[in-house]
Amino acid sequence: MRQPSVISRRAAAAAVSLVLASGAVACAGPQDAGGKGASGKAEGGPRKGGTLTVLNAEAQEDFDPARLYTSGGGNVPSLVFRTLTTRNREAGAAGTQVVPDLATDTGRPNKDATEWTYTLKDGLKFEDGTPITSADIKYGIERSFAAELSGGAPYLRDWLVGGDSYQGPYKDKKGLASIVTPDAKTIVFKLRKPEGEFPFVATQTQFAPVPKAKDTGAKYEEHPVSSGPYKVVKNENDGQRLVLERNPHWDPKTDEERKAYPDTIDVKSGLDEAVINQRLSTSAGADAAAVTTDTNLGPAELAQVGSDKELAARVGTGHFGYTNYLAFNPKVKPFDNPKVRQAISYAINRTSVVNAAGGSALAEAATTFLPEQKSFGFTPYDHFPAGKTGDPEKARQVLKEAGYPNGLTVTLLHSTAQNRATSPEVATAVQEALAKAGITVKLDGQEPNSFNEKRWSVKDAPGFFLSRWGADWPAGGPFLAPIFDGRQIVTNGSNYNHAQLNDPAVNKEIDEINKLTDLQAAAVRWGALDKKIGEQALDVPLFHPVYKRLVGKDIKNVVISDWTGVLDISQVAVK
Question: Residue 236 and residue 239: Cα distance in Å, rounded?
Fold first, then answer.
């Protein structure tokens, strides 16, 4: 999972996009009329025109829809690439819903959810005025299978019939037979197994239409053909500078989600995070109409904001569906002993961990693996209650039952990156808490690449390490399946099932939930499964991150949903 505008499974292992917690509506600055329904005509309301500046630390290196790993269409990419479905551009819990985008609905499944059919809306056009057809969407998906355009989400490779062996249209001119286009407005997907959450996958940019005649392969990202409200007019230094201007052939009558208030979007990247926050704070010149999609406020900056009412009014708060946790590998002693894992669970001082993560303004204590949002199926549980500061006496008792009356010594792998998540500060907080329970923790700090290689390796994974996971979309499937489905254990690549759990009952329940197209019913089942797996103490949930973003003083109509957790650029207006 990457930074806020790019939600991904692999970046779940890195840092990610944000989402609002528990349906709370977070907003920043002078939010006027909210998301959809904002007319922009009332006094002080959002108006069309002007230039929105985006100040980012990370460059948008990939701007090819095949190579982007996004959920809901992403943030900046969503301005250029429309998809079959997209996220609902509303604040709060309403923003976790999938809604139609290019399609007339969110998809029509057959009886067992192994086939999904979509019909395109009337009047859809590319930036050059040519009609968008189902063949363009089929081709856009097929090119995402090409080795030259790797990097996108892996789901279609796993889900589509024949997807595991298809190599893309450059090598296989016949195309992928499991994507059928009986006419210019209809597209049908044939899956290897039931997938009730397919409408969520259809929000990813691989579903953006690409006209075959305009495909330039690896160079396509320099000027992708727009299907959204803006087109790319400048892409410099591999995405370090992106300039978007209005697409004259985008018809708002076909797009209920994107407001597209500014005339121009100017994305400037490669900036120091402290500089970004300072520029947003000062809001001088063009920075008054600026936002960031990847830079948070830190503890010191929040202290400054807290003493300035004007700045505080310009801070948006969001929670991404994300959990930071202690991971156990039961294949390594002494973590094969459930009592040892339970003892560590009882010993954890979540208050000290939260403080190490930046304090309660930037982290919330967690006792469940699923984030605290209804869309995920959040079901409260605390199988090994340690209170706010840990229960070392209970931990010592359980450790004695495990056969270690005199305590034990373990090694904890962590990253040396100063990310306040898998970093030395959090590792030290864990070390200090466990010491009170008679558990000596030796810290093994590794630079980020080495850290990730070790924790994702079946062969070399340690028994005890810091980890984190974020959702590809706001539902339980992409949160629990990669971590606990035994059939997703990867022996020759990145393995996210840290416990190497391969429980037939868990695997079966995952399959049964995947058959459900009623997402609310599915959420209840995901929550129950999370609670059941939690009994095995295969991990210790530590905290859910909280994100604080500053916006320029002339930014209006800030909408933060429970899907992305950051302001939605498609809704933003400038004074």
Answer: 6
- Three state DSSP letters for 158-186: HHECCCCCCCCCCCCCCCCCCEEEEECCE
- Averaged over 338-350, what is the pLDDT? 98
pTM over 0.85: yes
Using one digit for the tens of pLDDT, what is the confidence trace for 357-414?
999 999 999 999 999 999 999 999 999 999 999 999 999 999 999 999 999 999 999 9
3-state SS class at 116: strand
Helix (H, G, I), strand (E, B) or coil at 529: helix
Cα angle 228, 139, 88 (rounded to 5 degrees) comes to 35
Our measurement of the distance from residue 522's CA atom to the centroid of its chain's CA atoms, rounded to an integer in Å, reads 20
Token pair for 483: 């971590």
Residues 6+ apart with CB under 8 A from 284: none
CA distance 108 to 78: 23
Asked if residue 231 belongs to a domain, the reply is no
Spatial CA neighbour of 374 closest among 201, 560, 199, 524: 524
CB 124 within 8 A of CB 176: no
Tell me how far apart the terminal alpha carbons of the chain are, to the nearest angstrom. Answer: 33
Identity of the amino acid at 428: T
Of 161, 165, 192, the C-alpha closest to 177 is 161
Query: Has residue 8 been placed in a domain?
Result: no
Please, what is the angle between helix 519-534 and helix 504-514, to 10°?
170
Residue 244 is assigned to a structural domain of this protein: no
Residues sharing a CB contact under 8 Å with residue 309, sequence separation 6 or more, in sequence order: none
Q: What is the rounded CA–CA span in Å between residue 567 and residue 76? A: 11
List the domain range (segments joined by +) for residue 440. 322-546
- CATH at residue 342: 3.10.105.10
- Which run of H or of E encompasses 190? strand 186-190
Residue 173: which of 151, 195, 146, 204 has the closest Cα?
146
Q: Contact at 8 Å (CB) between 325 and 541?
A: yes
For residue 104, what are the contacts with CB-CB under 8 A and spacing of at least 6?
Answer: 118, 119, 120, 121
Mutual orientation of helices 504-514 and 477-484 as an angle, nearest 10°? 150
Cβ density class 264-295: b for 16+ within 10 Å, e for less: bbbbbbebebeebbebbbebeebbbbbbbbbb
Cα 575 versus chain centre, distance: 30
Residue 477 lies in a domain: yes
Q: Beta strand 85-87 with 363-365: parallel, antiparallel or unpaired? A: unpaired
Domain count, the chain: 1
**Which residue, among 95, 109, 111, 93, has the nearest Cα to 23 in the 3D structure?**
93
| Sheet with 186-190: strands ordered across | 108-109, 115-119, 186-190, 179-183
Identify how many contiguous H helices and E strands the chain contains and give both numbers.
14, 21
The mean pLDDT value of the chain amounts to 91
User: Is residue 469 scored above 70 in pLDDT?
Assistant: yes
Instruction: Count CB-CB contacts under 10 A for residue 25.
Output: 18
Q: What stretches of 163-308 show up as alpha helix (H) in DSSP?
A: 198-201, 273-282, 299-306
